[in-house]
Design a protein that fits this description.
With 567 residues, the protein is α/β, with parallel strands linked by helices. It has 3 domains: 171 residues, Galactose-binding domain-like (Jelly Rolls, Sandwich); 74 residues, Sandwich (Immunoglobulin-like), CATH 2.60.40; 300 residues, Glycosidases (TIM Barrel), CATH 3.20.20. It is 18% helix and 31% strand. It has 8 helices and 32 strands. The protein has an 8-stranded parallel beta sheet with strand order 27-26-25-24-23-32-29-28. Strands 3-2-4-10-7-8 form a 6-stranded antiparallel beta sheet, with no helix packed on it. It has a 4-stranded antiparallel beta sheet with strand order 1-12-5-9, with no helix packed on it. Strand 13 and strand 14 form a beta hairpin. Helix 2 packs parallel to helix 3. The mean pLDDT is 94.
Length: 567
């Protein structure tokens, strides 16, 4: 079911994958908790769509994507049944075997060899099952998926009628499916908290163990007691985007051995020269960022490989950016690991649910009507609870990644309700990061920052007792022939005919509005956006990532001067 003259175009990584015989995403999917057991179930499965005959599909790509091999829309309220047969390698089973799903959109019910394992609701969370007692020599794994997209569960930018700032809906498995074997008593999860010179590690599933922390000099050895260890790091090296140093460690607990990492860094708000500033490691820091939607021209929700994440981050760092706002989407762990490793701070959004009103949520706030109570909005109990469940799942899943410095709860009123209560809940879950309760507007709620979206008028700073964050601005469009998803439509906030005109406008915006605003209290700025997405052609990169629309040296110079303004 195509719409207009739209087309999915290949990225560099997608072009390589499509014509290779490699298993997609054949990397250990959980870089924050690694062990020497990994059996990848990605690759060719069968899928029956809406009760039809089975077709081959390449997992972990959604059927709406080119890389899945199906590449078509599924209609309203689709249902899918996936089937995978597999045989485990000899000597794979140590004691227990765990089946993991990175994410399935939106509701999944899983069966193995006729045994119902259970289910999961929500399109962004990891989930797993102990399948030891269900295994046979040859195994049949079935995943039944439904996706109502009715606004109850978080859905992000998906819409049945895509167009403009709304994108193609996705359905089904979109992250790695894999198995690991573990001893009877094993490390189920880690909770890592760090300061400038100390790390605390809590392990779930085991009580006692031995830690070995690599420091680049002599390793540090410490004991895990009652599942807890607190370790002081001599001559600490603090994490920043300019020096993203990671301390790697090994935890041995009984028969289980896992590897992980941490970084030493702190986040706080300080008043400096009469201005409230966001501080990294005790010093004021300007977070110079881009909106990152996490969409790809060939895989939609899932890039062709983790290298796609690495390349996006590397390209944005080459322009001098030090932050990405991950916009109402939760990525596979590899995205955050690459940000940790390469040094890219992340402003992470919670994923919206609830309804959207163009008049209430876009038109009236755009002309200045931004103050209103959110107490009576989105009152349905089930919808509110689903948002809270998604928020808590996101914090549990991503909390160990040091790159994440900032949580955004609600974006432009989309699904917003009881911002004060949501802020208090999130502060209890994680009091170590900055919290933006209402990005854009409807801001009369508790929040650590004053968060603004400015698209159709000049950026001007008003005095605020809180750090000021320009959490969206720009959005200038420039269409590059042969690198667009929709040749017939263009979406952006100003339109330019050539990359040269686009670059000049981009530079003028920073020169005239963003650079002067830093001295007036601006602490972070998020330009829209990393890449084009479907109808939107307002990225610095094209949707297929083949073309950079701006001169790197010119943009790097702007980034350098922004950094100087904060000091």
């Amino acid at each position: 079911m195509k719409q207009d003259n739209t087309r999915h175009i290949l990225t560099k990584e997608g072009e390589w994958l499509l014509y290779s015989e490699e298993t997609p995403w054949d990397v250990y999917p959980r870089p924050g908790l690694c062990r020497d057991s990994f059996f990848n179930l990605n690759g060719t499965w069968e899928v029956s769509i809406n009760g039809g005959k089975p077709d081959p599909i390449t997992v972990p790509f959604v059927p709406e994507s080119l890389l899945s091999g199906i590449n078509r829309r599924l209609g309203k309220n689709p249902s899918l049944t996936y089937l995978k047969t597999f045989t485990l390698p000899e000597n794979f089973v140590k004691d227990r075997v765990i089946l993991h799903f990175g994410a399935v959109d939106q509701c999944a019910r899983v069966t193995l060899n006729g045994w119902t394992l259970g289910g999961h609701r929500g399109g962004y969370g990891h989930f797993s099952f102990d399948v030891t007692d269900c295994l046979e020599e040859e195994n049949r794994l079935t995943v039944e998926v439904s996706d109502r997209l009715d606004g109850v569960l978080p859905y992000g930018k998906q819409r049945e009628k895509r167009g403009g700032m709304w994108y193609t809906p996705v359905t089904g498995i979109w992250q790695t499916v894999w198995l690991e074997s573990v001893p009877r008593h094993y490390v189920r999860s880690l909770e890592i908290t760090a300061s400038l010179d100390t790390v605390t590690i809590r392990a779930d599933g085991v009580t006692d163990g031995k830690l070995r922390i690599e420091t680049g000099r002599m390793p540090i050895f410490a004991d895990l007691t009652d599942g807890y260890a607190e370790v002081k790091i001599p001559e600490p090296r603090n994490w920043t985007p300019e020096d993203p140093y990671l301390y790697r460690f090994t935890l041995t607990a009984g028969e289980d051995t896992v590897q992980s990492y941490f970084a030493l860094r702190t986040l706080e708000i300080r008043e400096i020269d009469g201005v409230s500033r966001l501080c990294l490691n005790g010093k004021p820091y300007f977070f110079h960022g881009l909106l990152d939607q996490g969409y790809y021209s060939d895989g939609i929700y899932t890039p062709a490989s983790p290298d796609s994440f690495a390349r996006d981050i590397r390209e944005m760092k080459s322009l001098g950016f030090n932050m990405l706002r991950k916009h109402i989407k939760v990525e596979p762990d590899w995205f955050y690991y690459e940000c940790d490793r390469q040094g890219m701070a992340v402003f992470q959004d919670m994923v919206n649910n609830g309804g959207y009103s163009f008049l209430r949520d876009t038109a009236l706030p755009t002309i200045g009507l931004k103050k209103r109570s959110d107490k009576s909005l989105h009152r349905k109990k089930e919808t509110r609870q689903a948002f809270y469940d998604g928020m808590e799942e996101t914090v549990r899943q991503l909390g160990n990644f040091p790159c994440i410095v900032y949580w955004t709860i609600f974006n432009e009123g989309w699904g917003q309700f009881d911002g004060d209560g949501a802020y208090d809940r999130l502060k209890q879950l994680d009091g170590t990061r900055f919290i933006d309760t209402a990005s854009g507007w409807f801001s009369g709620v508790r929040s650590d920052v004053e968060s603004l979206h400015v698209y159709f008028k000049p950026v001007k700073m008003k005095k605020s007792e809180k750090p000021i964050v320009l959490s969206e601005f720009g959005g200038y469009a420039c269409k590059i022939e042969d690198h667009v998803f929709n040749p017939d439509k263009t979406y952006g906030y100003r339109k330019y005919g050539t990359p040269e005109e686009f670059e000049d406008a981009f530079a003028e915006l920073y020169e005239n509005e963003i650079l002067p605003a830093v001295k007036q209290g601006l602490c972070a700025a998020v330009y829209t956006q990393v890449s084009d997405v479907e109808d939107e052609t307002n990225g610095l990169l094209t949707y297929d990532r083949w073309v950079m629309k701006v001169d790197k040296e010119r943009i790097r110079d702007i980034s350098r001067r922004l950094k100087l303004r904060i000091n």
